[in-house]
Amino acid sequence: MEYSPLENDQAKSPKPFLNKEEIILLNPGQLADYFAELTREGRLETYLDEALENPELVAQFSYWEKWLAQEERKLLDNIIAQKREIYRETQEDDDELPLGLEKRFTPEQLKLIFENLHAIQLTFGCSKGCPFCAFDAVPGAREHISYKQLERIFQNYGQSLKKNTSILYWASEPSDYLDEDKTYLDVYQLAELYAGYQPHTRSRETDKKEWVEALLGKLPKERVAISFYGINNSGKKRLFRDAEIDLVGENRSHQRGFGVSNREEKTEGEHGITQGTYPIITPRGLYNIVSLPNSERYPQGQVVVPIIDLNGAEIEIGDPIEKVLGHYLAEINDQSFSFSEDMAQKGRNERRLMATDGKKRFVVVFGRDGIIRNFREFDPNKLQDALTELSETDGTAQFSYFSQIPTARILTDIMNEMAGKKNFYSHDMDTDTRTWEIDNYGPSGTNGITIEVWPKEKAILIAPISKIGEIRKRAREIIDAEEKT
Ligand code: SF4
């Protein structure tokens, strides 16, 4: 669906407002143009009053709020606040999950969401207001998920969140969180208490004394990073360096051309700062995120789609990927950096994601333009299918199996056989540290294949792509032998 402001300007009578599905297909520039048009026509308030009854449109407009004019942002925030106030007055149980999630999804779907969740963004807006924020965080923290709701998330879904050690920030600054006397550190303790993990923390706040002391003294240093993009104060740097805390972006500035700055400084085909495919939750919405090289359509270098439901939808070649992401969950694969990196650096034109509605899983292949090129239903028990798919890829390929024990066991067997042979590397993995291990391990960054089997088997096989035939042959032999017995 193409939105054309010019066409709308020429219309004699006001056109009907765009509906939810149409809005989700607009790129952020087009969305901003649509807001500007409604402002010119004096219809924005009427439109928002109706549209903001939809949680997905609250999510969509909020995510791209930095693209809107100042007055439009104010109006949007005011109407959202008013509607939330009315909702708060009428709701019976103030202990519920954020965003009314339990009213929109079944308990099974919620479990699936939290098992795949990459991030819970605690606040909306960011006190740091970096002009070249690649996430387009609006300046100033103005809303948060209540501590009670976070407590309920961790109490009910802590074991699900543990699988991916979900982080507690996204387009936000952790030190901004405050709900009465509860701070980020209290939420952090919920993760420790109910989920048994210590979330990775990245912060840009280097001035608040108590916060700095907590970062240096209370949190495990290997799980903390300080963002030093654009900060030149060497005294501050020394403080954290001496404490052996990871300094990110030292001696660099945020890259221009991502997010709203892409409007002025057109960059295209560059890899953004996110990696992988996964859902996230913010105070304003539940989204699927899929990284891609940046473009006018995807200025942040990622597809961002509010999840409407998990009821599935017809998948069709030629459709925009947003249609799938509105009705399926993008299964987490935070190791799939190579897809978007390869697209950016090696001119690769396609990437894939695993989409599920909780009943079926689909491998969906789409281009950097977001258009679906291919798809097929995924059968986790068909090892041959999976390996064929691996062998089709050129360069580094990664494929994850989520708790698929039959497949996991077979691959582990192969791994054990291959381990120690020349050009093969095997490694027991701890789910908690896999992100870092994989980067440093074997030939995966050059010309290898990574087969991950986790979380239950916690195993990984990395092999040169030229050996895929050998792996497949051996897998066939194992399967045949099993079938005979
Ligand atoms: S601190 Fe991070 S999230 Fe906040 S504005 Fe800066 S880059 Fe964006």
Give the ligands present: iron/sulfur cluster
Principal-axes geometry comes out as globular
Sketch the major β-sheet: 4 strands, mixed
Low-pLDDT sequence parts: 387-408, 419-450, 452-460
Content-based structural category = alpha+beta
Mean pLDDT level: 79
The termini sit apart by 55 Å
Rg for CA atoms: 23 Å
Q: Kindly state the number of beta strands.
A: 19
Estimate the strand proportion.
15-25%
User: Which percent bin holds the helix content?
Assistant: 25-40%
The largest beta-sheet arranges its strands as 1-9-10-11
Number of helices: 18
What is the number of domains? 3
How would you describe what is shown here?
The chain folds into three domains: 1-90, no CATH class; 96-199 and 255-378, no CATH class; 380-485, no CATH class. The protein has 18 helices and 19 strands. The protein has helices spanning 5-10, 20-24, 28-40, 44-51, 55-63, 70-90, 101-104, 107-116, 147-162, 184-195, 209-217, 234-242, 321-325, 337-346, 383-392, 405-418, 434-439, 468-484; strands at residues 119-120, 123-124, 143-144, 178-179, 182-183, 201-203, 224-227, 246-248, 277-282, 285-291, 302-306, 329-330, 350-356, 361-367, 372-377, 397-402, 425-428, 448-454, 459-464. β14 and β15 (372-377) form a beta hairpin. The protein starts with a helix and ends with a helix.
